[in-house]
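We modelled each protein-ligand pair independently. The example shown here corresponds to the adenosine-5'-triphosphate entry; the chain sequence is given first, followed by the ligand as SMILES.
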Amino acid sequence: MRSFINGSVGTIVGETSPIEFRFLISRMIGNGTYVKAKADGKDWVLARVENLRRSNTAFSINQFNGSDNKRAGREIVLAEARVMGVGGNGRLHLPTTPVRPGDPVFLADDKLIKTALGLSKGELYIGQLRGYNICVELDANTLVQKHCSVLAKTGSGKSYTAAVILEELLEKDVALLIIDPHGEYISMKEPNREGDFAKFNLKPRGYDVVVYTPTDMATNLRADRPFRFYGLNLSARELAKMIPPENGSGQIGLLYETISALSAEIDPYSLEDIIDQVVRSNSKVKWNLVGHLESLLELGLYSSSETPLDELLRPGRASVMDMTGIIPELQAMIVAKLLTEIFEARKRQLISPGMLVIEEAHNYIPERGTGNAASTNIIRTIAAEGRKFGLGLMVISQRPARVDKNVLSQCNTQIIMRVTNPNDLKALSKGLEGMTIELEEEIKSLPPGIAMLVSNEIERPITVDVRARKSKHGGVSTPIISDKNSSAFDRLEAARTNSNSLKWPKIEYKSGGSLLRKIFGVGKI
Ligand SMILES: Nc1ncnc2c1ncn2[C@@H]1O[C@H](COP(=O)(O)OP(=O)(O)OP(=O)(O)O)[C@@H](O)[C@H]1O
Ligand SMILES: [Mg+2]
């Protein structure tokens, strides 16, 4: 007959080490439970159950005699616990000595978990520690200044979780600019009508959201305003950035020649003037160039009255750049130009600080060898230097392995939801300190709405039951053609290789403040 100390959940058995121990449980507990045991009879060691193994002596492989009497043998449940640290002084550090076999193990109390893990140091409420009524609050400073990533397979709740964080940031008067390939964040305008508001102690509400479209307003009926670049006296260098590089030096040369001649004749000249001038040339490649330029004209992206950049970053407002209806390669070019202008304006403090949110980031910052995008360089620069100039970054992707490692490695807060693809898991493991086989297994089986949070502010990776959204969720499934995991970019690549029918840049018509000043220590205009 085993004897257990009153109130304990088990007894430490076998060999122990400063980082892990096993205990025989006396009361059933689940995976992920936080427990405590005394280190050398003094401070409490906080540990997390990461595996449970159940066995029965009558049913061991060597002794099984065909009987189906489960009471005949002795059933034991062995818990494997990973040491989080010694939380005696409110700050975790790993113990220098292992816990003692034979000592009792207790359930950790909420206070110990909260203080030891550092869960209540921030002001952004993102949910509750899984299995507990403990609020998880992130530090706004760290999140914005040191960037953030949200990574998980499709349908696991990335956009939902990202929106929860964005809601919290808007309530703290942070300015947001969201690059939104599918217009998912438009619904943040409206209050949520469904969700467990009581559990998370929330009230539904909508937010100040302005939706921009780089195409014409008739093409994107959900947009509030058009987004326009300044389109008079465009330099050849500027315009060449909007023409795919594989179109050869012939077209680019013709563009330089044309604009050089035009600028001597007309002031100001428009995109139409450039096209007229190209048409008059004798070059063999002129019609290809005219095709590109006309598509840009048709898109309506250039205008004599451009969108002021300071309008895009307003404290407490989310500007959504809805990319619906624009082919991916052109999206990346628009993002490259837009973010370059934002970065330059921010360097000169002409616009408010803010957070840039990149949805489907694998399309805008593909990892080397998985694709090219015009926006890669500027996003890398912002990831490396944005902090100095008051620009934070949030990158969201369903394919961690396909997102630029340089950018991911700059994200100090990582929110990981369910990931099953081995390459993606490998990419995640490489970038995470303290990743164990058990945590990897846990990531593979996270249910929707549960996130693993890794942050400098929180002592160890934790799992969070993400709170309900206050605003309406507008998530849409990523459009799928043949391959579930293929991105729009992959499909573009495939279409290019397989047929000549896809012309560039043909438009796919519609198918369907104050805290920041504290955070960055920089002045608002
Ligand atoms: N914390 C949560 N609480 C309640 N429901 C959630 C939560 N997280 C996700 N969901 C539900 O899961 C569904 C998928 O979530 P979401 O759209 O965020 O997935 P995703 O990972 O962004 O998918 P995709 O890769 O297709 O963009 C949503 O429709 C939402 O209702
Ligand atoms: Mg999504």
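The chain has three domains: 10-117, 124-191+313-520, 236-299.
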